[in-house]
């Protein structure tokens, strides 16, 4: 689940109807707000049976979805959480007025952010960290790897897993995996406190780099990620849209290249209709691993190659077959358009073949 920036929902009443992952942003919302009555919904965002998402991050456009009913509406210590039922996309999770996941298209994001790093490893992962991802979809995908012994999640907002378990069972099924350890805590601090080389893979569902969320795209956090991942391990973080945010992606790729020196930095993407521009990217940062024999030193991992295979079905959890990801989609995800390659290619270790 990716958190994207948007103005907070404002007020206009609805009846009292009974993902986050707003990971470490360095502040806490007032508890008084979370204990208030059912929050009112924006008359601009919710009007005549239609929900419309707008943001300064993608100016001059919006996305509208017709909804049937508001299933859940509450404010946590960190954000406004809404679940609505729609005909076109099934149940939809909104955080602070921004679409995070829908039953119809969530698999394209969840499968790709999980399997791109997991399948690219030269040695199968045994210990994985997810920062954010409170809807449980990434956990569901990680449960497809029988060799994984521990799956840790650092999620700051306890309301999101609770809501997902109640309303989004096909995503939250991942929480049923006995290997999962959920830590309700500040995600950045969790990474900073981790021992060096603690994880084979770290997956970060980050907010857009605006306001307090800027720290998630800054050097100190990525240095902490580099420290926490094992040699030969991979950090995968959401990396914005090539249609809107090329300067941000270029800056991020350059910074990652400096931090993961000797390793590799690559950009891949997926398509998802309910995210702005219908596309969202991932930065895959592979920590250098030692080589053996003559000329031994450090060498990068090429993430374009799918070396591990996720299980297609996991009967104990009732997980459905993969719907988006396979080995061909894996390799093709690194093939980016010429205009994007011209802008960010100089910072990438590996690009699509």
UniProtKB/TrEMBL annotation:
Residues in PABS domain copies: 48-287
Keywords for this protein: Polyamine biosynthesis, Transferase
A GO MF label: spermidine synthase activity
Reactions mediated catalytically: S-adenosyl 3-(methylsulfanyl)propylamine + putrescine = S-methyl-5'-thioadenosine + spermidine + H(+)
Keyword Metal-binding: no
Coiled-coil regions, chain positions: none
Entry EC number(s): 2.5.1.16
Domain of life (superkingdom): Eukaryota
Pathway(s) where this gene product acts: Amine and polyamine biosynthesis; spermidine biosynthesis; spermidine from putrescine: step 1/1
GO biological process, one term: spermidine biosynthetic process
InterPro entries per UniProt: PABS, PABS_CS, SAM-dependent_MTases_sf, Spermi_synthase, Spermidine_synt_N, Spermidine_synt_N_sf
NCBIfam families reported in the protein's UniProt record: PRK00811.1, speE
Family: Belongs to the spermidine/spermine synthase family.
Name of this chain's protein: spermidine synthase
Organism annotation: Chlamydomonas eustigma
């Amino acid at each position: 689940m990716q958190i994207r920036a948007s103005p907070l929902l404002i007020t206009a009443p609805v009846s009292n109807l009974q993902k986050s992952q707003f990971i470490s942003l360095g502040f806490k919302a007032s508890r008084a707000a979370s204990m208030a009555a059912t929050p009112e919904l924006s008359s601009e965002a919710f009007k005549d049976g239609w929900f419309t998402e707008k943001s300064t991050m993608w100016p001059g456009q919006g996305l509208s979805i017709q909804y049937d009913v508001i299933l859940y509406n509450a404010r946590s210590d960190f954000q406004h959480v809404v679940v609505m039922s729609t005909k076109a996309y099934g149940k939809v999770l909104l955080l602070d007025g921004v679409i995070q996941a829908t039953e119809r298209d969530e698999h394209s994001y969840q499968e790709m952010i999980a399997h791109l790093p997991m399948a690219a490893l030269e040695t199968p992962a045994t210990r994985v960290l997810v920062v954010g991802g409170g809807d449980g979809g990434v956990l569901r995908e990680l449960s497809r790897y029988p060799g994984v012994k521990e799956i840790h999640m650092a999620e700051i907002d306890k309301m999101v897993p609770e809501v997902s378990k109640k309303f989004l069972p096909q995503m939250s099924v991942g929480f049923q995996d006995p290997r999962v350890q959920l830590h309700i805590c500040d995600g950045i601090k969790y990474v900073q406190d981790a021992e060096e080389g603690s994880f084979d893979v770290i997956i970060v569902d980050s907010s857009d780099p605006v306001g307090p969320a800027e720290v998630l795209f800054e050097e100190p956090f990525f240095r902490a990620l580099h420290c926490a991942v094992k040699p030969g391990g991979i950090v995968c973080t959401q990396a914005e849209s090539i249609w809107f945010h090329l300067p941000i992606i270029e800056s991020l790729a350059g910074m990652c290249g400096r931090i993961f020196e000797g390793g590799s930095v690559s950009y891949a993407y997926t398509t998802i209709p309910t995210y702005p521009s219908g596309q969202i990217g991932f930065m895959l940062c592979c920590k250098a691993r030692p080589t053996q024999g003559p000329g031994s030193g450090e060498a990068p991992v090429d993430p374009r190659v799918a070396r591990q295979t996720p299980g297609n079905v996991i009967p104990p959890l009732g997980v459905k077959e993969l719907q988006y990801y396979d080995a061909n989609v894996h390799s093709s995800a690194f093939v980016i358009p010429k205009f994007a390659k011209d802008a960010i290619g100089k910072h990438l270790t590996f690009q699509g073949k």
